[in-house]
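B., you asked whether I could sanity-check this one before it goes into the benchmark set. Here's the sequence:
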Amino acid sequence: MDDASSHSGRRWFITRMAHAGISPKVIMELAGHKQLTTTQRYIDVSDEQKRSAAEVL
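And here's what the prediction gave me:
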């Protein structure tokens, strides 16, 4: 795990909560962020999520 850092742990935590459908405001507060845009930068989007979104169209 050469790429492991405190930020990668935060990214994993925040991404998992977002994928579980937890409110962005709740995630923001749990992460200790003052701005929602900060929280949004930590959320990874998978290729599967992109495909699913495209299928809606």
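One thing to flag: The chain has four helices and no strands. Otherwise nothing jumped out at me.
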